[in-house]
Design a protein that fits this description.
By secondary structure, the chain is mainly beta. The protein is built from 3 helices and 26 strands. Strands 2, 5, 10, 12, 13, 14, 15, 18, 19 and 21 form a 10-stranded antiparallel sheet that branches. Strands 1-20-3-17-6-7-8-9 form an 8-stranded antiparallel sheet, with no helix packed on it. Keywords: Disulfide bond, Secreted, Signal.
């Protein structure tokens, strides 16, 4: 009886201690993919918290509509060790608000990376260093995945070189925070803009031009190993809605060897094809030369 009382007392103390913090203490590593803020779950104050099932969720063909004042946090798999380079890519539809943070990344050693929209281009902050980046040099083969704006940022600790890509344009390379490292799993927070976001990926390396081109075109790119839209843990607070993503149209049309304009292709995230029939969520997970998925038929080329 005394032993049972002692165990009960210890559990009660742990629960009281846990409610004063931000995260629930658990021995289950999968719990760390989602945030459990006990005060907000037990006594909500000005907003609702929702979270993804552990350990992550396939968000292919989905997008978050983020309203003003809301916060969405994304978490990838648990991993530890130095991060000497990275590539971060995402697609957004947002109104231009100078100074607004598009996203903020944090890691275990409290190092941060923030991308802000500026009147002329963007501002990237890595650690304690900031650089203005303006994608101006067009690469014709990249094109644009309408209606989305595809953004990618790369950084290499060994050289300090950072670069930004926006649709079919790239910025010049600039040096910043050379020799520094990130450490541990990555967490991305969206809280500074109003609009839609999808296809968030992060890699622990600088993607080659071919990988960046594939991401920009919306198919054939490797999924992120630090953050992946195919396996994402997330937490949202406030007015943020997870819904079906807009269908994407590749463009602009390019000329073939005969000089004629090629017809544009409709692309779904990670796939290339012509959507014959169906809605926004009708072709997710369809692969092969020809396959029916729900009420839609997709012909891959």
């Amino acid at each position: 009886m005394m032993a049972n009382s002692l165990v009960y007392g210890l559990v009660l103390v742990c629960m009281i201690t846990g409610t004063t913090g931000s995260f629930m203490v658990t021995d289950n590593p999968y719990e760390q993919y989602t945030t459990h803020r006990w005060p907000d779950w037990t006594t909500p104050r000005g907003g609702y918290w929702t979270s993804s099932p552990s350990p992550g969720q396939d968000l292919t063909g989905r997008m978050f509509s983020v309203m003003s004042g809301s916060v969405v946090t994304f978490r990838g798999p648990l991993r530890y060790g130095n991060i000497n380079a990275f590539t971060v890519c995402l697609r957004i539809i947002a109104e231009a608000t100078p100074g607004a943070a598009i996203f903020t990344l944090t890691t275990s050693n409290s190092a941060t990376l923030t991308l802000r929209s500026m009147p002329s281009g963007y501002e990237l902050t890595v650690g304690q260093a900031s650089k203005n980046l303006q994608p101006v040099s067009a690469i014709p083969s990249f094109g644009k995945l309408w209606p989305w704006t595809s953004l990618c940022v790369t950084w290499d600790s060994n050289t300090g070189m950072t670069q930004m890509w926006k649709d079919g344009k790239m910025s010049v390379r600039k040096g910043m925070w050379r020799g520094q490292n990130f450490y541990g799993p990555a967490t991305m927070t969206l809280s500074g803009f109003e609009g839609q976001v999808t296809d968030i990926h992060m890699w622990d390396k600088v993607l080659p031009l071919s990988g960046l081109r594939s991401y920009n075109q919306g198919w054939g790119y490797p999924f992120g190993n630090m953050l992946s839209w195919r396996d994402m843990g997330y937490t949202s607070q406030g007015y943020a809605i997870l819904e079906n993503a807009f269908e994407s149209q590749g463009g602009p049309a390019e000329k073939d060897s005969t000089g004629k304009q090629q017809r544009r292709h409709w692309r779904r995230h990670g796939e290339l094809g012509n959507v014959v029939q169906g809605g926004a969520d009708s072709v997710g997970g369809c692969f092969g030369l020809r396959k029916r998925c729900g009420k839609s038929q997709v012909l891959l080329e």
